[in-house]
């Protein structure tokens, strides 16, 4: 299916995302380029790169509008307030400034689109898309990756019930206005239906991995992971309150004396990184290592050097209906997975037979699972990893997901034309 716009040209698609390449982000340049290949005239509207450090990347200078071409994709960058630290005020300014820039640009300055695709979080991106869609009569497809306001409450970013209620009302307005909503899990779909969104306007499209980055493992291990005789448990990604990584340090403390060959490696950064480092140092956890964040192109080598890969989130009902994006990356890497998350994410591991599932924030169960994997024969570990990779290839790949999304976007353009 490859419908043309009324003038015979490909349907014009605006991809609205606050973060985009060169930032580490889901659905970046390769995503936008493939949508172009699937029949869309694509323009990406985004901010100036500043995630995760909160500082504008070298080579960029904030200005109201900057148009450029990245990897064959037309990109329009809009002004925002750069901030990604613990300051709630900074985060609010970051989200609000991009909302204002995006709403103004899409409503008054952008070429009219046939459909707008808005990647959420933050919710303010969806809000900007819906404001512009309302005034310019353009259908909006929302990709809901985070269930606001639930996530804000669960992570402790906002605790004021009145403010959370106001954010919830704004979210419901964007959901009602959306031509269609894409979600990453069946749990998200169920929750949206409970909140009044018609079931026929919701499609589940699981996330995929950055396949090129994950599988680009070099022939040699990273220099920091060359010591022989270690069984390495790797956690890669954001280290914030939602990840509840104190429980992982608790498991490291349990195994420190019993299983000296087990090593816990944390790769990445986040709001909790420095505090976790300080705690590990204070407790003398010699079996814990913190590795600096690396470009996505280098992550594959670290995943390949690990013996098993850990997903961990705090015990919260919200996280039982989500699937952390690292799940797909770990599966694509073909390594055994320890899933310390309940619900939909745990079900993926069960279905794939690619690892073990333990309750979140249960240090004892986590330590026991790691010890049992460390006792496995290398061939059995390799079989778990192969199962995970095969499941990813068969059910969660980039090509499958993006074709499903392209179908949703094409149908939204049909609705606009009255087809």
Automatic annotation (TrEMBL):
Residues covered by the Glycosyltransferase subfamily 4-like N-terminal domain: 31-208
Protein's UniProt keywords contain ATP-binding: no
Stored InterPro entries: Glyco_trans_4-like_N (IPR028098)
Organism: Sphingopyxis lindanitolerans
Entry protein name: Glycosyltransferase WbuB
Any GO molecular function: glycosyltransferase activity
Keywords linked to the UniProt accession: Transferase
């Amino acid at each position: 299916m490859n419908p043309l716009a009324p003038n015979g040209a490909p349907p014009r698609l605006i991809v609205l995302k606050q973060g985009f390449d060169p930032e580490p982000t889901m659905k970046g340049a390769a995503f936008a380029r493939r949508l172009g290949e699937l029949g869309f005239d694509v323009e990406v509207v985004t901010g100036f790169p500043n995630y995760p450090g909160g500082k504008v990347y070298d080579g960029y200078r904030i200005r109201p509008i900057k148009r450029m071409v990245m990897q064959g994709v037309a990109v329009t960058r809009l002004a925002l307030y750069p901030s990604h630290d613990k300051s709630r005020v900074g985060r609010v300014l970051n989200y609000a400034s991009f909302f204002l820039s995006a709403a103004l640009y899409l409503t008054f300055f952008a070429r009219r689109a046939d459909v707008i695709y808005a990647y959420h979080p933050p919710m303010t991106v969806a809000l900007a898309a819906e404001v512009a869609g309302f005034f310019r009569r353009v259908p909006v497809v929302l990709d809901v990756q985070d269930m606001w306001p639930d996530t804000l409450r669960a992570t402790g970013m906002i605790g004021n019930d009145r403010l959370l209620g106001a954010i919830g009302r704004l979210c419901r307005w964007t959901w009602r206005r959306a031509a269609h909503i894409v979600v990453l899990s069946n749990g998200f779909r169920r929750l949206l239906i409970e909140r009044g969104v018609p079931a026929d306007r919701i499609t589940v499209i699981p996330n995929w991995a950055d396949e090129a980055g994950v599988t680009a493992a070099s022939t040699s291990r990273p220099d920091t992971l060359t010591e022989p005789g270690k069984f390495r448990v790797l956690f890669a990604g954001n280290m914030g309150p939602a990840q509840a990584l104190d429980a992982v340090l608790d498991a490291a403390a349990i195994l420190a004396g019993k299983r000296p060959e087990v090593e816990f490696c944390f790769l990445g950064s986040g709001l909790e990184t420095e505090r976790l480092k300080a705690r590990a140092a204070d407790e003398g956890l010699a079996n814990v290592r913190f590795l600096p964040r690396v470009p996505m192109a280098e992550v594959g080598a670290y995943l390949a050097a690990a013996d098993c890969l850990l997903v961990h989130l705090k015990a919260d009902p919200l996280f039982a209906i989500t699937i952390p994006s690292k799940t797909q990356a770990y599966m694509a890497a073909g390594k055994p997975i320890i899933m310390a998350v309940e619900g939909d994410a745990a079900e993926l591991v069960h279905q794939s037979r690619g690892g073990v599932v333990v309750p979140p924030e249960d240090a004892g169960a986590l330590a026991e699972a790691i010890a049992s994997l460390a006792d496995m024969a290398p061939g059995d570990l390799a079989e778990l990893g192969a199962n995970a990779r095969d499941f990813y290839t068969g059910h969660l790949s980039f090509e499958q997901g993006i074709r499903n999304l392209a179908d949703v976007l094409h149908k939204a353009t049909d609705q606009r034309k009255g087809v």
